[in-house]
Amino acid sequence: MALSRVADQSAAAVDESVDEALHLLGDPLRDVGRGDRVVIKPNMFQRKPGFRTSPELLLAVAKRASERGAEVFVAERTQVLKEILDGSPVHRYAKVVSFDDRPLRIVQVPDARSLRVPVSMPDIVLDCDFFIGAPQLRTHSSVILTNAMKNLVGLFPGFTTRIVHMAGVEECIVDLNQLRPQHLVVCDAMTVVEGNYPMAGHTREDVGLIAASRNAVAMDVAMAAVAGVAPEELAYLRDAAQRGLGPLDLREIDVRGASVEDVSFTIDRAPAVIAPPREGVHVHADTACEDCRRWLSAALHMLHDELMEYPGEITIVSGPMERLPELRGAVVLVGNALYEHREAGVYLEGCPPRAIQVAGLRHAMGQTVSGPERTQFRVPTRDAQDTGALAWPAPEELV
What we know:
399 residues; alpha/beta; eleven-stranded mixed beta sheet; four-stranded parallel beta sheet; 17 strands
């Protein structure tokens, strides 16, 4: 694991830092040969400035793989990365493609714990000779922190990332890393995303780090420590270590370059305490899993003002229970565990739901939601209305 400081975010400074990090690792691209197919997977499906992997980092990595004689692809779900990289010099060294445009292959995830049914994966990911992850370090309202391992959720094209939430995010992250291990991870921690992401969130531009590792678990353990998060807090890291995919203890990782202590900072986490903003907002979530509780905490934080202004009562329920509590006013059911009670109110499936499903809470309060948002929650059959042909949300919103 290598940590390199970046003087600034210019192409020259990023190139120098990437070169240092790869040198500290002993030149991991020496394994790339002429004619090999190399795929670089960034986190680049959102247009909002700062909420994506640095194009300069992609340029530095793609250039070095291309110099080895490889056929290089920079690939991500949706067409957004093509817009962001339009005119970028990365095109000199790599083909920029969307997984949405690639043929898919049905595969079975080996030894899966959540993705136990065959799934569709882009052929280019399954067939490449060398797979490089290029994530951006971020907080997350449900799983606390995301980086190298969760970046693979973006292997599902378009809106099909939904399957991960239906099956259970934490174990699905590890399942995907079993299916397609990363030969190299180069992490963008120059600008990080923190706060109540993906429901909201903001950027922090003063971190100034690039990290590289041959092991995604080691990368995430070290970067969690850099961000002031104990790796043991992250369920997917505990699971990955238990499955033998990498170490959970920072002491087992050879950190080269800058030390974790010298570059550490405290990332601004998403809210994690369920706090109803007023009387009349009734929350019953004692039996909910931690991911759904964190999602609910983030949703209440995001909708604080709207819940304060809503004149009626609302009952929000999450977690397995044989009998529902007393339901007052509008009713919202959060999470897969309440499927059997789905007719009792607005139902948000997932473990946890996705950020876009906050629209279900707004709908329950009588607010107008868009057609695409309306596809993201279920209303009781007795209350359902014919909404006609509904468009899917923009894939960049499906987080």
